[in-house]
Amino acid sequence: MGFRFFDHTADVGLEVNASTVSALFEEAAVALSAVLSGSAPVEPRERVSVSLTACSVEQLLVDWLVELLGRFDIELWLAGSGRLVVEQRGDRWHLNGAVAGAPLDPHRQSTALPVKGITYHRLSVRQTADGWRATIVLDV
Amino acid sequence: MYRNVPTGVGARRRDLRLSPRDMRAVLERGAAWAVSRGYGSETELERVEEGGCLEGADPDLLSTRALERGRPQLGTLGSGNHFAELQYVAEIYDEPAATAFGLRLDQVTCMIHSGSRGLGHQVCQDHLRVMLDASRTYGIALPDRQLCCAPLDSPEGRRYLAAMSAAANFAFANRQVMTHWVRESVCEALQIAPEAARVETLYDVCHNIAKLETFEIDGRPERLCVHRKGATRAYPPGHPGTPAPYRHVGQPVLVPGDMGRYSYVLVGTARAMRETFGSTCHGAGRRMSRRQAKRAGDARVLLGELRDRGIHVRAAGLATVAEERPEAYKDVADVVRVVHEAGVSTRVAQLRPLAVIKG
């Protein structure tokens, strides 16, 4: 469980593993923050509520990471731990919950990589024998 | 320059704040908006691709998030492979073209590599989602979902082009503002008046962009959409799109290399119009992934080595320096040799770095 990076010539690949689909989305947020902040720990100072809906679990993951990326670009806000519920109802996937984080402190944390966007290249979210796995390539 | 041009994630100047109305004007007018606010002069605009403004830009097609990401980022360099670099002219290969471009040996130049920042990235992200649906609607089989698309004359295609044009205008304005601040930096550093410094724009050329342009196909002029990904424009002598001061030699082409070696100025050719839709290479291209580059050595050591060679680097983060190390890129001289020998643009001058600012 957790996340690891894989090499991609111009971009950054990310593989995230978790026991449940909700935990997968929580872990993906932490992974994105690790890319943006160079793995420095994020203090859970402010809680932000989130509610998203998408047509597939993969689109929901993209929307979730784009939401976090936007917050970073505008307020330098980094996500830490979260409490999310991700579930399928009918033909839609829903994410509800809250994530705790804090703006990046330029004196303590350096930004590691500017992430331009979340790509659909090699994107996958699937159930495995041990839980859930997501593969994401970040446009950097 | 490092003080005057905001560099790196989150950096911005307090003396440039945009109202929603300003944002709209930036997206509609591009570099002309910047000039109207005192960032440079009207005469510079003729040395910018398309005069610094793409027609058909529609700010109403941008999401609130795109506008939010863009507003604090106008007049900022960004990070990653974006840079501003003081250089000197180390080689001249084509005297007449160099003279037309105002380049001479040992002259100091500055090259800026930046674009539409978070605003453009968000426009892309927003429209990827639209295009995924559109690909299904129009029955387009995708080898990779990131290549999702729609016919250009479909509502989705037209809306994307209008949104992307607005993002391009933001990029033109962004570079125009930074160009002005570079000029101010030179004047400040040398304690001279702007007229004495004579820091003039050579050219501002786009890359990674799709544009509607006219080409001759089977003897007839046709309006085509040219997507220059990893490529840049290289118009020939005599073309109406080549700025008047350069029309007798061709459009200047700027090809950045890496911070340890060199960059090039090329000139567009008639052959490019015939064979590559007036396009040539944009840069060197990466040889190593960012992670490989980071593992290749310590950024502080690299900074010391560059300093010993007379190249001074100021960067917001050491990680960027490591990822952008010279050997992470192909030798741009090899890339330039290929396009030169293919005749789709030809060498005019080589520029070597003196000082680099990076995010």
Written description of the protein model:
The complex is a heterodimer of chains A (140) and B (359). Chain A has 140 residues and is an alpha+beta fold. Chain A has a single domain (2-139), classed as Archease, Possible Chaperone, Chain: A, domain 1 (3-Layer(bab) Sandwich). Chain A has two helices and eight strands, in the order E-E-H-E-H-E-E-E-E-E. Chain A is globular, with a radius of gyration of 14 Å. Chain A starts with a strand and ends with a strand. Chain B has helices at 20-29, 31-36, 64-70, 95-101, 117-137, 155-190, 194-197, 270-275, 290-295, 299-308, 318-323, 332-342; strands at residues 83-92, 108-113, 207-217, 220-233, 252-255, 263-268, 279-281, 312-315, 345-358. In chain B, a hairpin with a 2-residue loop joins strand 3 (207-217) and strand 4 (220-233). In chain B, helix 1 packs across helix 6 (155-190). The A-B interface holds A 5, 7-10, 12, 36, 38, 59, 62, 66, 70, 73-74, 76, 104, 106, 110-114, 116-121, 123, 139-140 and B 8-10, 65, 68-69, 72-73, 78-80, 118, 121-122, 124-125, 128-129, 132, 144-146, 148, 286, 288-292, 316-319, 323, 359.
